[in-house]
Amino acid sequence: VGQKILVVEDNELNLKLFCDLLRAHGFAAEPVRDGREAVGRARAFEPDLVVMDIQMPHISGLELIEQLKADPELRRVPIMAVTAYAAKGDEERIREAGAEGYVSKPISVVRFVEAVRALLAAPRPPEEEAPREEGEVVRVTRRFAAPAEQVFDTWLDAETVGEWLFRTPDGVLVRCAVDPVVGGRYEIVERRGEEEVLHTGTYEAIERPESLAFTLAVPLYADGEERVAIAIQPEDEGCTLTLTQTRAADAPVGAEQIAQGWSHLLDALAARLETPGDQP
Ligand code: MN
């Protein structure tokens, strides 16, 4: 079956002429005699193009073009208007209503088919973007006196990472498991009062010493999974770490609170690295 073309035309002879002509050129033509049915029929038929008569009883083609262009599902379907009179300004009004093409009656068969082909080949307007599900991005930067490699390694060291990562002042570390490979998981459980809080996720990138990325879920507090990316820039002395977290739309805490939390954790990491004899 060829491309589908919905033909809206109240005049029986013209309707048959357009449909026969389109079918003879390999298109699947669907006739609509009553303009009041046009929008519903277009939704059902899902045409690649609409041929639209302008002069019709009950509802004008101009009005229908506007309705089709206001419909989120149909607005990308090109419309070729066909009109009997071509008074000055008609074409302009038709294009303003949203029609991409225009031919005047009496139609030239060659010109009609050429116009149909040109409209079908023309690029479509972009689909409307789906609303972004991600919330804002939180970014925290901190300088370290320790070299990049050493800072990087602390994030993946199963022996020590649980002592600072996701720790709270009064929390007690219950369990820390790290599988430091791409696709591997980590689990850090801290007891906070009566609650055991699990922080878990999967490593998505491990490129020592510049780049580390992992997902982060805290099932006790939120359903979603967030994404943390760490970039470590080596410098002559020490390094600079930039942490970026995409905050989920349903995150239980605000961006400022997340940034503050990470700042405290990075302070704790720096303190660890600066304590002689207590380095990973
Ligand atoms: Mn008509």
Morphology call: elongated
Helix content: 25-40%
The sequence of SSEs as H and E is EHEHEHEHEHEHEEEEEEH
Strand segment tally: 12
**Describe the biggest sheet?**
7 strands, antiparallel
Unreliable residue stretches: none
Number of helical segments? 7
Draw up the topology in text:
Layout lengths: L3 E5 L3 H13 L3 E5 L5 H8 L3 E5 L7 H10 L8 E5 L6 H8 L3 E4 L4 H13 L12 E11 L3 H7 L17 E7 L6 E8 L2 E13 L3 E6 L9 E9 L4 E10 L6 H20 L6
Parallel strand pairs: 1-2, 1-3, 3-4, 4-5
Antiparallel strand pairs: 6-12, 7-8, 8-9, 9-10, 10-11, 11-12
Bound molecules: manganese (II) ion (MN).
Account of the protein in words:
This protein has 280 residues and is of the alpha/beta class. The chain is built from 7 helices and 12 strands. The strands form 2 sheets. The chain has a 7-stranded antiparallel β-sheet with strand order 6-12-11-10-9-8-7, with helices on one face. It has a 5-stranded parallel β-sheet with strand order 2-1-3-4-5, sandwiched between helices. Strand 4, helix 4 and strand 5 form a beta-alpha-beta unit. It is elongated. The termini are far apart. The model has no long low-confidence stretch (mean pLDDT 90). Manganese (II) ion binds next to loops.
